[in-house]
From TrEMBL:
Tree of life domain: Eukaryota
Positions of the SET domain: 26-255
Gene Ontology annotations for the cellular component aspect, listed alphabetically: nucleus
Span of the signal peptide: none
Protein name: SET domain-containing protein
PANTHER family for this protein: N-LYSINE METHYLTRANSFERASE SETD6, UNCHARACTERIZED PUTATIVE METHYLTRANSFERASE
Pfam family, one: SET
PROSITE patterns: SET
Amino acid sequence: MADEKKEKSLELDSAISSFLLWCHDNDLKLNNKVSSMQKGSCHRYGMVAMEDISPDECLFKVPRGLLLEPKTCGISKILTGKVIQNMLSQHEGWVPLLLALMYEYTNPTSLWKPYMDIVPGIDILDQPMFWPDETRQSLLQGTGFEDDVEDDKQRIERQYFTVAVPIMKKFKKFFDLKRHSLSLYKHMAAFIMAYSFTEDSPSFHGNNVPVMVPMADILNHHSNNNARLEFGEEELSMVSTQHILKGGEVFNTYGQLANCHLLQSYGFVEGPDNPNDTVSL
């Protein structure tokens, strides 16, 4: 068991190294004062200060061309075209991104392959909607949000069969229902829920649609975050908001969220010190 854990850790280190090289080769500018690694992180991996960092320092910049979204992926003309747009309702804005992620995840020549290679498995993402039914019902009973989790699960499954499958059948050149299965759809949905960012830029339906931001999604969450993501016209920048000592972890925030909402969307809780936690009476 220990050998297996060590092997997985070495594999992840190798994948992170490949990802960092990919970032460098694609003009994702990383400050020398930080690095992405397992050691020093509160979770699977994170961003750690290699030197003391002052407030308002730029930690990295991500060119907009490296954002993974329907309009940048390898089948952008299809996913942003009128055929698919006409097949979607205002409540299905995630579908093009889910299809983009499934396509790139299974494409060995994808531009984003080093990024997709560090996507956590569904077991690591661990949102309650993907737990076995018996586990979910047992652990969430009486929490007050078990019905919301069940609704999320059913919506994703319904969306796959009623929206995603007809689109994939229409574009068989790029999709295969055996590879691009419900299981993979759920995996990518979990990835979006836990790792995506939403810019205040409405989609064609007038809703804000999430995008995947390589490097930015490596940062773990803390309600007392010491960095924030800023959206610029040409690039996105992660900027420090506090002093960060050498060896300290760089944290973003996923929002002012109670533990139940963190668990539902991200698969973890911050603990009893979460200042945003609430109790229903």
